[in-house]
Each structure stands twice: as C-alpha cells, then as structure tokens.
Fold this sequence. Notes:
Layout (H helix, E strand, L loop, with lengths): L1 E5 L3 E7 L7 H11 L8 E8 L2 E8 L13 E5 L2 E9 L6 H11 L10 E6 L3 E7 L8
Antiparallel strand pairs: 1-6, 2-4, 2-5, 3-4, 3-7, 6-8, 7-8
Amino acid sequence: MQILQLPESMLTYGLAADTFPEGIQQAHERLHRLLPVHKQRNYFGLSWPYDGQIIYLAATTAVAGEDLATGGLQVKEITAGAYLYIDVPFYNQHPEQIGIAIRKLIADERIDPAGFCIEWYLDGGLCRCMVRMQEATAHI
C-alpha cells in the first residue's frame, strides 16, 4: 500500500450501475457509448455504501471545452489530498484483484470514513485502487 498526493480535485461525470457487482461492466459500456473515448479523459469506477447496498458509478472527466454538467450524468468530485492506493496490473486478466485491493484499503484505519472507493483506469492495463485518507493521518 502506498500514498499518492493528488494535487488537484477532479470533477467526474458518470452513470450508475444497475446492480453491484454484476452491472459494473454494463455501466462502463454505456458510458463509453455515450461519450467518445478520448486520450485526455480519465476513467474511473467510484463506489460507496448506501442503505445497505453498494452504489457504483462508471465515471470520466470532461475534456477541454466539453460541458458534461447538463447531460444527465451524476457528478462526483475526487478531491485533492492524500490517498492510499494499491495498483492492480493487468486488471482485465484478473478482475477479482480489484475487489481484493479495495478490501485491503478500506480495512486501513487511516482512511476517511466519509470518502469513497476509486478505481482509476490508467494506461497499460493498470487499475489504481484508491481511498482518501483522513487529513490527520495523511502524513503517517
């Protein structure tokens, strides 16, 4: 487990999965059909507990000049700050490793209880699983 300092907040725009975890892939497919793939976009999976269930959002950032705020997508901000993270290489070959990484992260006492889980899909088949740290523990 490592610590990443995210220097700037990112607004994300996304679509909720109908079910969790079964609907994750379909949510990402719907998002990619709605918004063209672009090299300047960041792609995420965001999840948090709500009313005894897990809410999952397939999300992306806007590219320069694009206004996604009025497109009916859910808006969620990934705030600047310190994040615990675990990288999952070749996640397509071993998608179960994402869940394993997330469970390790949320078991850490340093995480922000008001935060949410982040899957940041990076180039080269890498998924960076992240959870925001509490401000008081971000330097430990």
